Amino acid sequence: MSNRQPNLPDPRHTLTADIQWENGLPISTRFNDVYFSRASGIAETRHVFLEHNHLPRRFRELVPGTTFTIGETGFGTGLNFLCAWQLFLENAPDNSSLVFISTEKYPLQQDDLQKALSVFEELTPLANRMISAYQLSEGNIDLQFSHSASGKHVSLHILIGDVLDTLPHINEKVDAWFLDGFAPAKNPDMWQPKLFQALKAKSHEQSTYATFTAARLVRDGMAEAGFSVTKQPGFGRKRDMIAGRFVPSSGLPVSKPWFAPADHRNPEKTAIVVGGGLAGCSTASSLARRGWQVNIVEQHQALASEASGNPQGVLYAKLSADNTPLSQFILKGYQFTLDTLKALEVELEVEQWQQCGVIQLAIDAKTDQRYQALDNQHPNALLQYLTEAQLSDIAGLGIRYPGLYFPQAGWVHPPALCHALADHPNIRVMTNTVVNNIEHVEQGWLIKTNGDKLHSKTVIIAQGAASPQLSQLNYLPLKAIRGQITQAKATTESEKLASCVCAEGYITPAVDGYHTLGATFSFNDKGTEVREADHLENLAMQAGYFPAMYQALGGTDAQVTGGRTGFRCTTPDYLPMVGPIVDLKHFVAAYAPLRKNSKLTIDACPEYLDGLYVTAGHGSRGIISCPVAGEILATMITGVPDSTLGLSMPAKLLEAIHPSRFLIRDLIRNKI
Ligand code: SAM
Known about the structure:
Layout lengths: L18 E4 L2 E4 L4 E2 L6 H11 L3 H6 L6 E7 L5 H13 L5 E8 L5 H8 L6 H10 L7 E7 L4 E9 L2 H4 L7 E6 L13 H9 L1 E9 L4 H9 L5 E4 L6 E6 L24 E5 L3 H12 L3 E5 L15 E2 L10 H19 L9 E2 L3 E4 L3 H13 L6 E3 L1 H8 L7 E4 L4 E2 L1 H9 L4 E4 L4 E7 L2 E6 L3 E4 L1 E4 L17 E11 L10 E3 L3 E2 L6 E5 L13 H14 L1 H6 L7 E11 L6 E6 L1 H8 L16 E9 L5 H17 L12 H6 L4 H8 L4
Parallel strand pairs: 4-5, 4-8, 5-7, 8-9, 12-13, 12-24, 13-20, 16-26, 24-31
Antiparallel strand pairs: 1-2, 2-3, 6-7, 9-11, 10-11, 14-19, 15-19, 16-18, 17-18, 21-22, 22-23, 25-28, 25-29, 26-27, 27-28, 30-31
The site of S-adenosylmethionine has 22 residues, from helix 3 and strand 5.
């Protein structure tokens, strides 16, 4: 190693460690701090450094013949090294190598090492091997350990000197960092911007780090250097520690640091979804398909009791010709919902899902132009621009406008879809359970309900416009817009309607003797009652753009058999909110400079509330928006991108639906 490290400082004036022993525990008199935890050194090393760098899994997944590199600040007694070595031997495939590069300003003498490590019996064979090879002389320490039976190889390089001088000169990129060294309060000279910059320079896209401290200085330093920062439960009496990964700005899966992905890990593979509408059931289903155990917590007696409770929901893909993010999202969602419905076909009855096609009428010149442009952009299997006569043939009743025909679309019974999605052995539904608040505690999220307290490391809020009632989500600009649907009695003539027809409103083919007509839009209106005036409005829409249907229903004698009021949850840009939730205070502080200069380059990644996600704001297109959103969340949370249905989502789209997008917009506009 030494001949591969050309510019190392001259370490000839090495000082050794000043150790005082307390009940066999080494304490540094220079730093007045312990080398390892009194509670259990090995357990702490495993918890902090091995687990939070995901080393058991990463060692197991190593390709034979390859090398894994660990970098450490502060070699001390070598306990971390020995634990990593042991884990490597237990998990890595034959013929793989571990390179452990550590740094040490005040190395221990050989006999101090011996004394310190003698308490860890399970490490004795490896410790003895290391200690007998460990010689303090001038310069760095380079040791090689071969395991001939397995072909595994471990090399240890201790760079003697100040980490700020030595680390910037290593040639390797490091896969996992152990940020040890004494606590920042006791060793402020080490936790310097220069250290964080060196870590950045020696990291690559897969690099992770873990450290026992959660001190603000370290969190900010790591974030500023481009690492994600996630608080995790600390070991023993320590409340928090932090861990994360390097998110290089050039290779970001997202183009803006404030949209950097959350680094959430939940080995328990359990989640709680708050809200049993389409958004919640879809997310639960996507997680369950990935082997997670999910609890859906629903305040009402049954799933789909609010916005997802209408009897017939139309798969209405409102696309724009200029391929906006909203349009791209709708297209992805539409296709994903079709795939989902296909996969659930056996569970949905004929009265619950009908692939009868959907017609969108071009009722004005501008819409007509847009539809013709869309026809040129998309294959016929997706949509076709057709004349009045062609559409009339398809619809079964006279149509007065040209328009788009979506042959694979149709209508679905949203509550049936919710039940089908939630009908999975990995999903448990808890109804009549009201979530009052959620709180982050040592072991994850504590969910206080009207009944039991629930607990999970992963929580997804899917409560529509009620989501911001939880304090952690109170900044999300979600709004409820009242909408009423009408059920009108079918007649022999109206039963001829064979497809859904949409313009300003929509109408569906008859099922069980009635049609569903929708829907009104009332802003700033909280009324839950069903109103006669709204029925008339729904019928008037049919009279306006689909008079043949209006007449078929009986015109002014049309019989209204029922109706329903619901509240669409919308956002200012009509895209949903799907993704992780940030720590608001940290976010505002980290990106505050954008208030003065929106072009400023800020490398800092946001701090997320570990394991907290939202899916909401699906508006009136929940059927095509919720399933894809659930899949996106499940991919983010589990790290497993491909489900049985398969989905790829461009980074730009993930940014377009990120829950932090309005925060950053408001900061730039100096509104917060
Ligand atoms: N990782 C160690 C183990 O497994 O035993 C424990 C490390 S101990 C808590 C911290 C170590 O960091 C000490 O050995 C100390 O001498 C070293 N250290 C402190 N400041 C340093 C610096 N600026 N450069 C290099 N090493 C430093």
